[in-house]
Amino acid sequence: MKVLVFHIGSDRYGLRLGAIARVLPAAGLKLLPLAPAFVAGLLDLHGEPVPVIDLSQLAGAPALQLWFDTRIILLDYRVDGSSRALGLLAEHVAGIETIDMASLSDSGVSGAPFLGRVASSAAGMLQLVEPEGLLTDAVRALLFQPQEAPP
């Protein structure tokens, strides 16, 4: 399985390529007042607002710093049976790596539903991020208002 590798602090994480719609350079975001701290803001993507999550803060690490290799990873996120754009702000995006499915094992840690299985390689341990576990129902409701039917 191919994954996009990024870091939260010094730890390596991966997101399945099949879950990714696009990868963009970091951009200016509109802040969302009263949103949880891990909501970095809204990205203007061709006139459409896209909520962006700071993966560092979501994982309980210090707020993300902008580096030359910071990226916004766009997902087609499933909300109420439809697909909506969701951005993930990720530090130190390192590139694509192939993970041997047989090398994946349970982390043995619960409590962060967006963190999946782990793999070890010569490059070190890598933990998968599971997009469906990223947002609670309350945060989903805050970020994704019901879409109006076209007239």
From TrEMBL:
* Gene3D superfamilies xref list: CheA-289, Domain 4, SH3 Domains
SMART domains in the cross-refs: CheW (SM00260)
Show the taxonomic lineage: Bacteria, Pseudomonadati, Pseudomonadota, Betaproteobacteria, Burkholderiales
Q: Which Pfam families match?
A: CheW (PF01584)
Q: Which SUPFAM superfamilies match?
A: CheW-like
InterPro entries named among the record's database cross-references: CheW, CheW-like_dom_sf, CheW-lke_dom
> What is the protein name given in its UniProt record?
Chemotaxis protein CheW
Looking at the record's lineage, which domain of life comes first? Bacteria
> Per the database record, which ranges form the CheW-like domain?
1-140
Query: Per its UniProt record, what PANTHER family does this chain match?
Result: CHEMOTAXIS SENSOR HISTIDINE KINASE-RELATED, PROTEIN PILI
